[in-house]
Design brief:
The protein has 371 residues and is an alpha/beta fold. Helix 1 packs parallel to helix 6 and helix 3 packs across helix 9. It starts with a strand and ends in a 14-residue tail after the last helix. Bound molecules: flavin-adenine dinucleotide. The site of flavin-adenine dinucleotide has 41 residues, from helix 1, helix 2, strand 12, strand 16 and helix 9.
Amino acid sequence: MDDCLIIGGGVVGLSLAWELAGCGLKVHVVERGQPGREASWAGAGILPAARRSPGGSPLEQLSALSRRLHAEWAERLSSETGIKTGFRVCGELHVARTAEAVARVEQEAREWEAADLCVERPTEAQVLKREPALAGVSGTTLQPSILSAAWLPEAAQIRNPRHLQALVLACRQRGVRLTSNAAVEDVATHDGKLKEVITTVGRFTAERFVLCAGAWTETLLARLGRPLPLKPIRGQMVLMKLPGQVLSCIVHEGPHYLVPRDDGRVLVGSTLEDVGFDKRTTDEAITELTMFAHSIVPALREAEIEQTWAGLRPGSALPNPLIGPLPNYENVLVAAGHFRWGLYLSPATAILLRQFMQGEKTEISLAEFQP
Ligand SMILES: Cc1cc2nc3c(=O)[nH]c(=O)nc-3n(C[C@H](O)[C@H](O)[C@H](O)COP(=O)(O)OP(=O)(O)OC[C@H]3O[C@@H](n4cnc5c(N)ncnc54)[C@H](O)[C@@H]3O)c2cc1C
């Protein structure tokens, strides 16, 4: 019998599978579609800066552990699979072009400083020196100047589709069984234990089960009689392409951002929409994102729009993701509700669950992440 059956082959499920298999466990991932093609593929791959000193809230500790692990995992995934995940420390700029946005950037900068993140407060001239492509934003009424900015040099990015491709291959190489096109439709329980999952391709059993079904986890939890406040939050994205790279760092303005890849592509995100399980893009959102990109980096007016898409974040009404054992069940765990930061938080989530499952003291207490 498998030691562990993971429902959902997104970044959270695959990271856990890789970690468990690395410790010699027999792992089976059951995925409704193809692994790594939902939110984890749709995301931007931003890995924010984390606090430098130990301590902080459990979420800050989870972030700091993940941020450290990403650099290490990128190396290990690349040496195991030959796939480069595109991990690089590129820094991020937060800029404000309106009085309202200034108040927000200043407030955020104070919070980041208090949380011991490395933050600088560049002048407009310093911003433009770092990113000359933003130069067009100054000097006309249509493109107001940068009134305030914060620079976080330690922020990084991964090319999430490549990270997922590497995880899938690395899992297979470690002997993880991956069953694709198998949706878990029901569960069979007995005496406080989950016995088997009933899927569209058959029934599977294991010693333990972990629910990692992203925005769809709520449906599974409801079948186990433990509904939790999780729901999908749609995010739309535009991928632009120029012949060469115009930006070097991630640029944020309010809810919008630009993530430059290293090949002339720029991701433009995103929206936060509570519209159920609807993954369609809308003309309004794509226009809004395109106009934002054109207004902040004028060179992007020449860019080709290569692709647009939407993904469903595993949204949660809770402040922290859910990581840990499901009450009333001896052998069921949950890793879900990572909302906007599942790519970022996935390595630490995997490590903590693996430590818990192996009876070790977890590096960060799971108390605040209890489902
Ligand atoms: C537009 C956008 C931008 C984002 N940007 C970032 C970012 O910059 N940085 C960051 O850290 N995060 C970002 N995120 C959030 C991040 O993508 C998610 O938090 C993360 O991908 C969640 O991973 P997951 O494995 O929980 O979910 P998913 O990737 O959705 O994986 C869940 C998997 O479970 C499968 N599944 C569902 N139901 C069943 C079932 N019944 N049976 C079998 N399988 C099932 C699904 O098919 C899916 O493959 C972004 C998200 C979006 C949409």
